[in-house]
Specification:
The chain starts with a helix and ends in a 5-residue tail after the last strand. With 421 residues, the chain is α/β, with parallel strands linked by helices. The radius of gyration is 21 Å and the shape is globular. The chain is 46% helix and 20% strand. Strands 3-2-1-4-5-6-13 form a seven-stranded parallel β-sheet, sandwiched between helices.
Length: 421
Amino acid sequence: MALAKSRTYDLILLGATGYTGKLCAEHIATSLPTDLKWAVSGRSHERLASIVENLKCYNVQRVQPNIEVVTLSLDDLRSLAKKTRIILNTVGPYYKYSSPVVQACAENGTHYLDVTGETPWVYEMIQKHHDTAKESGAIIIPEIGLESAPSDLLAWTLATLIRKELSLNTREVIASVHQVNSQPSGGTLATATGILDHYSLAEFMKSSAPWALSPVTGPKSSKTVPLATKLLGVRKTQHLGTLTTSIAAGPNVAIVQRSWGLLGGPKSYGPHFQYHEYMRVKNSLAGFIIHAAVCLTSLVMAVPPLRWLMQWAAHNIYAPGQGASKEANAKDVFELRAIAEADQDVPNPRMAMAKFRYDGGIYYLTGVFLAEAAMVLLTNDDLTTHLAGGLLTSAMLGQPFIDRLRNAGVSLESRIMPQKQ
């Protein structure tokens, strides 16, 4: 977009004084081009100035960010959006604060990236702003953090590999959180415990229905889920081990399904494509206990007095804007594994396997996702022209995004598995 290229900034980081925002600013300062024109934005000039001062220690030679003080009024955000090619938004809970940010970007042809995991809010933004963003050319990509970029990129990688190497569609991808060592931030806790104060249970269920985020109605699974799996929440696979319910599966499945639809539905990954996500556990008993705990937590969250008690407890762990120390984060590990089955009507269909791994703070990784995705949009005119605009997904950034993540320390491997005899 010629208009966007003439703007004051390449990117603006909105919410730079928050926990994730600070980590994203650090990655920009240490890893992105030194001539990048950027700004940090928020409500407090004093706190933003402190962030800018702290960033100087990483690289005094680079162009330091400007400061843009802004409220979250729509008029203020429209003015902000007109100044930049991209807004990276870390202001959450998103359902509470960020709807006008998406609107301002969609109206003004400004690309937008965030790291929400709030499916009802994403559903609402699609309904309200997808068409406007398509008309303006704004590429709006929510959930490009830990939710749901790893899941989305693994599904895309496996489907692409199977089509390239075997000339086949993909029938099913099963993903598993193989390892995660981390503590939630205050913002994550506030979002998780507060979202049902904003959306009704009916709205929550509607947005969480199968294929609700996909522009194309998806296929029904041809496989019958065993009764024991339904009741106990435990599934065993040959390559991933014993699996159970993952609390992050819902948002991730919804985004993968949207990618399937946006990339062409039946013509993309395949007409029978299914995606399922779980968490790896040591044994079936541990899996059942975790499944029961997730179900109980969901029940508690649906009852207002109990939900308010959870909110009070969460606030006393970490308040919004707070999180674990850098020393604690250095010990974080996140690994997601996935297996894919080719769409073949034979006893032993061909399989592929992929792994996404990052050693280090997962909230720092969230900042990496934002900054590296921004660079993909800033440096790939052919891609942005092809994408055209709308409420899109991380998978649509494809191999350029994966390449940048690898250069930033992410390991993403995939391979076709040997043919069973």
